[in-house]
Structures are given as structure tokens and as C-alpha cells.
Amino acid sequence: MRIIRDLAEYPAGKSAVAIGKFDGVHRGHQGLLATLKGVADKRHLTAAVFTFDPSPAVLFGRQEEPLMSAEEKREAFRELGVDVLVEYPFDRERAAMKPETFVEKILVEGMHAAAIVCGEDVSFGAGGRGDRILLAALGERYGFDVTVVDKVLADGSPISSSRIRQALKEGHSEEALRMLGRKSG
After folding, report:
1. Has residue 176 got a pLDDT over 80?
2. Does residue 48 sit in helix, strand or coil?
3. What does CATH list as the number for 2-150?
């Protein structure tokens, strides 16, 4: 897996791109990345993940302790078949980028997106104003397909990094491990 911080180093050729924070690379993320890999393999595209470093929550002072270190997250991406990981530097200037500009400059021009795979609650661009509906509309404009992956449930509720953190905080490590898709011991 190639790790990139500067899109000038992004490889030539079309990509299937997943965007997100991927904190913990939990079962929901694993499902999304399996879909990404399937789309990439079927269409002979590079399987790429785009994430900000640091995450927007860190820049704005909302981040709790991450569920995985950067190296653990990279290893999880490797194991799930990601070809290219973009750890894009995040700062206040990039935080102010309009959603449309993010898609055009980063995903289309920078990463050569032919397909984008995202969760139903995806948000991007200034104030998180970009969503799956805008992404689909921009896909029509720029010629990429959008695949929206449903939330994965555990015990009838969506798996999320926040829910895993809460389970850990309450001492429910087995529940957290199930949501993370990992075994204890």
C-alpha cells in the first residue's frame, strides 16, 4: 500500500475512492472498504482511501482519544486491500474549502475518481455541508459513480466510533471488540 500526503504524488489512472475518518476501522468501515475493493476490482481501478491528518475533530478541539494509532490504522487498510492511502494534511484553510471545490480539486483532479464509496452519513467540505446527495449530483457533473453503503448494525443500533468509545468507557470491552470486528485475547 502506498501512503501519500501530497496529491502531486498520486499515481496515474482512475480510482475508486472511499472518504472518511475511519477511526477504529470498525465493522462498518470494514464493510465500506470491502465494497470499495469490490468496485475497484470489478472496474480495474485503484482502491484508494482519503482521510485527513489530523482529523477535523482534532483541529477544532473535539477529538477524543483515537481508537487506533496511525500505524494500526494503516495496517488495517493494508489488510483490507487498499492500494493507496491519502493522509491529506488538514488545516483551517482546507477546513474552509467549499464541498464542490473539495470534490473537484481533491477527488476528481487529484485522485482521478471514477467511483466514490461512502457511508450514508458522509460529510465533507466547509462545515461538513457536503453530503451523499451533493456527491451524487457532482458525480453526474464530473463522471464518477457513487455507491452509498448502509450502516452496519450491532444489537439493532448502528456501529460508530462514538458508540465503541462509550462501550469502552462503560467497561463493555467485549461489546466494543465485537463492533470493532476483533476477538478478545
Report:
1. yes
2. strand
3. 3.40.50.620
